[in-house]
Write a structure and sequence with these properties.
- The structure holds three protein chains of three kinds.
- Chain A is α/β, with parallel strands linked by helices.
- Chain A folds into two domains: about 230 residues, P-loop containing nucleotide triphosphate hydrolases (Rossmann fold), CATH 3.40.50.300; about 70 residues, 2-Layer Sandwich (Alpha-Beta Plaits).
- In chain A, a hairpin with a 2-residue loop joins β4 and β5.
- In chain A, α5 packs across α6.
- The two termini of chain A are about 35 Å apart.
- Chain B is mostly helical.
- Chain B has one domain.
- Chain B has twelve helices and no strands.
- In chain B, α3 runs antiparallel to α5, α5 runs parallel beside α8 and α8 runs antiparallel to α11.
- Chain C is mainly α.
- Chain C is built from 13 helices and no strands.
- The relative contact order of chain C is 0.13.
- Classes of the chains: A alpha/beta, B mainly alpha, C mainly alpha.
- Chains in contact: A-B, B-C.
- The interface between A and B is large, with 57 and 46 residues.
- The structure holds adenosine-5'-triphosphate and magnesium ion.
C-alpha cells in the first residue's frame, strides 16, 4: 500500500514562491532605521596552532586555508519602532551579525546603515545612535557600583554632566536599581546585572537598541520581567534588534522575525505570517521514551510526512519528535504503530498549532535547539 | 515618536570621557586597599638588602667606591630615585599592558569599544590614572625611604620634573603599543615580568650603568630611559652624568617624538586587526 | 578468604599503599607542572636575572678599582661578591619556589575544588603533601644545578671550588627545613587564604634577615637576633663558608649542628601546625570554601 505514496525528497525543498514571499527585499520607499544589505563575514582561521607566536598572528597576510563563513550575506530592514528578532540555532551567525552592526567587527562585504548613518564610513555616528547589550552581565564593571558604571558610560557617550546626572537617576529608578545603586555590582543577582547593562545601553537615549540573547541564563521570573522591559523600550519609540534561540521569545516579543541558519536568513516575516505559511501542514508532536533514532527514516517515509525532526530532551528524558504532514489522521496511527513496535513508549502526543520552531523545522529539517 | 541620541560631543566631552576613564581606573584600584598599600611597601623587600649591601662596602669615609663611579656616596638616594622611575616603567608594563587585557577577559572591553569615542582615548584615560596612582605610590615609597634609609635630595627638583615629562610621554607612548600587543597574547605574564625587570635593570634603576659588562653596556646605552635616569640623578643628587645634560635631554625629546606616534600606530593597527578577527571577545 | 578484594577498606594502611599513593600524587603534580610552559623561564631565566641587580650594585659599591672591597672582605672572608650573592640567592630562590609551590599547592586544590576529593581518599594526609613536595624537590634540584651551570658559563662564577662535601651536607640538611617551612606556610595559607600577601611577608623576612645578599654582621643588633633564629641564616653561612672560604669541620660544626636540629624540628612543627589547621578546618567545615 505504500507503493502509492509520492516519492519524497529529503529535505523537501521550500517552494520558491513561499521563500520569495518571506525574504525581505529592501524597498526604497520604506523608512528603515536599520537597513542591512548583503552583510557578510568570513573569518579567516590561521592554519597554525593556537599557540602560534604573536608575530605570526600580527602578520595579517593570512594563510587562507581555513575560512569560516559566519554570515553568508544577510539583508533585512527594520522600520522605526519595530522589534525585530533574529532567530536561529547555535552558530547560525546571530551574534556575528549584531557585532558587525555595533561596529565591533569589520564586515567582509556588504553595507548597512543605522538611523541613516553608514556603518563603514560613519562608525562614530553609528555608535552614538546605538545602545547595545552584547555580553549581558559581563558588559559592565563588577568592581564599580551601578551608579558609577552609568556615570562612567555617560561620559563615554558624551552626555553633558547635568543631563548625565538626570539620566542616570532616571534609569536607576526605572530599572529598579535605585535601592542598591551604590553597592558594587559584583554583589548583584544576574537579573540585576543584566538590568544595569540595559540601563547602560539606554543611557544616551539611542534610537536603536541591540540585544544579543538578552534572557540567556536568567531564571524564568527575571526573563519574564526582562521581556516586559523590552516591550517598554519599544513603547518609548525605540527600535530593537534582538537575537534569540527561544522561539517563544521571538513569538512573544517580535513584530517581525528573521529566521537565520548557517549564516543566511531563510525566512523573514511577522511570526503570524510565518506560522500561517505552514498552516496547510499538520504539526504532530510526540514525546517518546526509549525511542530508537534509527526509526527516523522509516517515519519520514510514511506517506504524507513532509518533514520531521527529533531531539533528545535531557531534562525530561524523552525524545521530542515533530512530524509535519498534510494529513495527520492518516499518519498518526501508522507512526504510533511503528514506534511502539520498536518498544518506544509514547508519553504524550498532540496535533499542535505550528510554532516558529515548526517553521524552522519546515525550512531546514532541524530542530532549533539540539 | 523617534528618539534622538543625547550624545553631544564637544572637545570638553572628550576630556570628560578621558577623565571618566581615569577615574574609573582609580576607583577600581582603590577598591583593593590592601593592594594599594602593598605597592608602597613591596619595594622595601628589595631596598633593604640593597641598603645593607651598601653598608657592607662602606669604609670609615663612607662609600668611596660608589663615589668613584658616580660622584656621590649617597648610594641609597641613588637607588631610591631609580626605584621611583622604575615604578613608572612597571606601571607601563603591568598597568597599561594588562589593563586592556583584563578588561577584555572580564568582558567589559567591548562596552568601551562601542562608545562613540576614539579607542585610543581609553589608553589616554588609563595613562592619566596610571600616572596618578604611580605618583601616589612613589610618594609613599619615598616617605618610607626617608624614614628608613634617610632619603634626601638637593638640587633642582623643578628641572628634574621637567625632564621627567618627555621621558614619561615616551614611556607611555611605548605603553600604547605594548598594551595592544599584550591584548593578542595568551599568557603574557612571564614576558611582561621579564621585560619589565630587564629594562629597569639595564636602564640603571639600581646602579650606575658603567658597571655593566661589555656585552650589556651597549644595550643599556641604547635605551633612552638610561639617560632619563641619569639626567634626573645628575640634577637631584649631583651625580656625574654620562653625557652632557643637554644631550641627554635631546635624546629624551627625540625618544618622545618617535615613541608616541609609533605607539599610536601600533595600537591602531592592532585595533584594526581585532576588528577583523573578532578576537576581542574570545576568552 | 579473599577479603582484600571483597572489602578493600579492611585492608588498612600499609607502607606500600601509602608509598604508591605518594608516587601517584607526585606523578599527577608532575603532569600538571609540565602543562605550563612558563616553568622553563622560571627554571632558566630567573635564577640568573634575580641576583644580577645585586651583583651589579655590589660592583658599583666596590668602586672602579675595587677600592671598597677590603671592607667587604673583612666582613665576609672573600672578595668574590658575585659568588657570595649568587649562593645566597640560589638558596633564597629555592625557598621562594617552595613557598609558592607547596604553599599554593593545597590552596590551588582548594580553589579548584579538588582538595576535598583528595581529602576523601583514605590516604594519610601527610602523603598528600609529601607527594606534592616530591615533585617540587626534583624541580628544586634541577633548579640548583641549572643555576650553578649558568653562573659558571655566563658570569664565570666558580662555585664548586671549596669544600663541596660539607656544602652538600648543609644543603641536604636544608631540604627538610625548607620542606617544613613550606608545610607550615601551606597550613597558614589554608587557614587564612591570603597567599599572595603571605608569600610576600615570609620571603621578605628571609630576604631581609638572613643575609641573602649581604653579610649578617652589618645588621643592627636587634635584627641580628632575628637572623640568629632563622635556620636559613645558618644554611647560607655554612654553604658560603664551605665553598668560598674552604672552611672545614672545625669552623662549620656549630652551623651544621643547628641545621641538624632544625632539620628535625622544622618538619615536625610544620606537620603539627598542619594537623591543627586540618582539624580546625574539619570543625568549621571550610575546607572546600575559598
Ligand atoms: N572571532 C571568530 N573567529 C572565528 N570564527 C568565529 C568567530 N566568531 C564566531 N565565529 C564562528 O562563526 C559562526 C557564527 O557564530 P555566531 O556567534 O555568530 O553564532 P550565533 O548565532 O550567535 O550562535 P549562538 O546561539 O551560539 O550564540 C560560528 O560557527 C562561530 O564558530
Ligand atoms: Mg550568539
Amino acid at each position: 500500500m505504500a507503493s502509492s505514496a509520492p516519492v519524497l525528497e529529503f529535505p523537501p525543498p521550500v517552494p520558491a514562491d513561499v521563500l520569495a514571499a518571506h525574504l525581505y527585499t529592501p524597498s526604497r520607499a520604506e523608512q528603515l532605521i536599520v537597513d542591512v544589505h548583503d552583510l557578510r563575514k568570513v573569518f579567516v582561521k590561521r592554519r597554525s596552532a593556537p599557540d602560534a607566536s604573536m608575530w605570526q598572528r600580527l602578520a595579517l597576510r593570512a594563510q587562507r586555508t581555513d575560512e569560516r563563513v559566519a554570515v553568508a550575506g544577510v539583508s533585512f530592514g527594520i522600520a522605526e519602532g519595530e522589534i525585530f528578532g533574529l532567530l536561529g540555532p547555535n552558530g547560525a551567525g546571530k551574534t556575528t551579525t549584531i557585532r558587525m552592526l555595533s561596529t565591533l567587527l569589520q564586515p567582509s562585504a556588504g553595507r548597512a546603515t543605522i538611523n541613516g548613518y553608514d556603518l563603514a564610513s560613519q562608525p562614530d555616528m553609528v555608535r552614538r545612535n546605538l545602545g547595545a547589550v552584547l555580553t549581558g552581565e559581563r558588559s559592565i564593571y563588577w568592581k564599580l557600583s551601578a551608579r558609577e558604571n552609568l556615570e562612567y558610560f555617560a561620559a563615554l557617550y558624551h552626555l553633558p554632566p547635568a543631563i548625565a546626572r538626570r539620566r542616570v537617576a532616571e534609569l536607576l529608578e526605572r530599572l529598579d536599581l535605585a535601592s542598591r545603586a551604590n553597592d558594587p555590582v559584583e554583589g548583584y543577582s544576574s537579573g540585576m546585572k543584566q538590568r544595569v547593562a540595559i540601563a547602560k545601553a539606554l543611557l544616551a537615549n539611542p534610537p536603536v537598541v541591540l540585544l544579543d540573547e538578552p534572557t540567556i541564563g536568567l531564571d524564568p521570573q527575571s526573563a519574564r520581567n526582562l521581556r516586559e522591559l523590552i516591550l517598554e523600550i519599544k513603547r518609548e519609540g525605540r527600535t530593537v534588534l534582538l537575537t534569540t534561540h527561544y522561539m517563544e521569545e521571538a513569538d512573544l516579543l517580535c513584530d517581525r522575525v528573521g529566521i537565520i541558519d548557517l549564516g543566511k536568513i531563510i525566512a523573514l516575516d511577522t511570526p503570524a505570517a510565518l506560522k500561517r505559511s505552514i498552516r496547510q501542514l499538520d504539526v504532530m508532536q510526540l514525546e517518546v521514551e526509549a525511542f530508537d533514532e534509527a526509526l527516523m527514516p522509516e517515519l519520514e517515509a510514511l506517506p504524507g510526512v513532509q518533514q520531521s525532526a527529533v531531539r533528545y530532551r535531557d531534562d525530561e528524558r524523552v525524545w521530542s519528535l515533530a512530524l509535519h504532514s498534510t494529513d495527520s489522521r492518516a499518519v498518526l496511527p501508522r507512526a504510533i504503530a511503528l514506534i511502539t513496535a520498536h518498544s518506544g513508549r509514547i508519553r504524550h502526543m498532540a496535533v499542535a498549532e505550528p510554532s516558529l520552531e515548526d517553521v524552522f523545522i519546515a525550512l531546514t529539517g532541524k530542530q532549533l535547539r539540539d | 515618536m523617534p528618539s534622538t541620541s543625547l550624545a553631544q560631543p564637544t572637545w570638553r566631552s572628550y576630556i570628560r570621557a578621558a577623565l571618566a576613564i581615569a577615574r574609573k581606573d582609580t576607583i577600581v584600584f582603590f577598591r583593593y586597599p590592601a593592594n594599594a598599600l602593598f605597592r608602597v611597601i613591596e619595594p622595601i623587600a628589595w631596598l633593604t638588602p640593597m641598603y645593607f649591601l651598601g653598608k657592607s662596602f662602606a669604609g670609615s669615609a663612607g662609600n668611596t667606591g660608589f663615589a668613584a663611579y658616580t660622584g656621590t656616596n649617597d648610594y641609597m638616594s641613588f637607588i631610591l630615585l631609580g626605584a621611583v622611575l622604575a615604578n613608572y616603567i612597571a606601571a607601563v608594563f603591568w598597568g597599561m599592558g594588562y589593563a586592556l587585557k583584563s578588561e577584555m577577559d572580564a568582558g567589559v572591553l567591548e562596552s568601551n569599544w562601542m562608545a562613540p569615542i576614539p579607542r585610543a582615548l581609553l589608553l589616554v584615560g588609563q595613562t592619566l590614572a596610571s600616572l596618578a596612582i604611580t605618583t601616589f605610590n612613589s610618594a609613599g615609597m619615598l616617605l618610607l625611604g626617608w624614614l628608613l634609609f634617610g632619603f634626601q635630595v638637593s638640587g633642582n627638583a623643578l628641572a628634574a620634573a621637567l625632564i621627567l615629562i618627555p621621558m614619561l610621554v615616551a614611556l607611555y607612548g611605548f605603553g600604547f603599543a605594548f598594551a595592544a600587543i599584550v591584548l593578542l597574547m595568551r599568557d603574557a605574564n612571564t614576558m611582561v615580568d621579564v621585560s619589565n625587570y630587564l629594562i629597569s635593570m639595564l636602564a640603571g634603576s639600581q646602579f650606575p650603568v658603567q658597571v655593566l659588562p661589555r656585552l650589556l653596556l651597549p644595550l643599556s646605552l641604547a635605551l633612552p630611559l638610561t639617560y632619563g635616569f641619569d639626567a634626573i640623578r645628575a640634577l637631584l643628587l649631583g651625580v656625574r652624568p654620562l653625557l652632557a645634560l643637554h644631550y641627554e635631554i635631546a635624546i629624551l625629546i627625540g625618544f618622545m617624538a618617535v615613541m608616541t606616534p609609533l605607539g599610536y600606530f601600533v595600537f591602531k593597527r592592532i585595533e584594526r586587526y581585532c576588528q577583523m578577527r573578532g578576537t576581542l571577545s574570545m576568552h | 578468604m579473599d577479603t582484600h578484594i571483597a572489602e578493600p577498606w579492611r585492608a588498612g594502611r600499609s607502607l606500600a599503599t601509602e608509598l604508591r599513593a605518594v608516587l601517584m600524587i607526585a606523578r599527577k603534580e608532575w603532569m600538571i607542572f609540565r602543562r605550563y610552559p612558563s616553568w622553563v623561564i622560571a627554571l632558566f631565566i630567573w635564577p640568573v636575572l634575580m641576583p644580577l641587580a645585586y651583583i651589579f650594585t655590589a660592583q658599583a659599591l666596590g668602586g672602579p678599582g675595587g677600592e671598597s672591597l677590603t671592607r667587604f672582605q673583612q666582613l665576609t672572608g672573600t672578595r668574590d661578591y658575585a659568588a657570595f650573592i649568587v649562593l645566597g640567592s640560589i638558596l633564597w630562590m629555592w625557598l621562594n619556589m617552595t613557598l609558592w609551590d607547596v604553599g599554593m599547592y593545597l590552596r590551588n586544590e582548594q580553589m579548584h575544588g579538588t582538595l576535598e576529593s583528595n581529602w576523601l581518599c583514605p590516604t594519610w594526609r601527610v602523603s598528600l603533601i609529601l607527594g606534592g613536595a616530591l615533585t617540587k624537590l626534583l624541580v628544586s634540584v634541577a633548579f640548583i644545578l641549572i643555576s650553578l651551570l649558568e653562573f659558571r658559563v655566563l658570569l664565570g662564577v666558580h662555585l664548586l671550588a671549596g669544600n663541596v662535601g660539607l656544602a652538600l651536607l648543609a644543603l641536604l640538611l636544608t631540604i627538610p627545613i625548607v620542606h617544613g617551612i613550606g608545610i607550615a606556610f601551606a597550613s597558614l595559607v589554608l587557614r587564612f587564604k591570603e597567599a599572595n600577601a603571605m608569600v610576600f611577608l615570609v620571603r621578605g623576612i628571609f630576604m631581609i634577615f638572613c643575609g641573602i645578599t649581604f653579610p649578617v654582621a652589618v645588621l643592627p643588633g636587634w635584627m641580628q637576633v632575628i637572623a640568629a633564629v632563622l635556620p636559613l641564616t645558618y644554611a647560607i653561612h655554612a654553604v658560603r663558608a664551605a665553598l668560598l672560604a674552604n672552611a672545614g669541620w672545625a669552623e662549620l660544626s656549630a652551623d651544621l649542628l643547628v641545621l641538624g636540629a632544625y632539620a628535625i624540628a622544622a618538619p615536625l612543627l610544620g606537620y603539627i601546625l598542619f594537623g591543627i589547621v586540618e582539624r580546625g578546618a574539619r570543625r568549621r567545615g571550610d575546607l572546600g570554601q575559598y
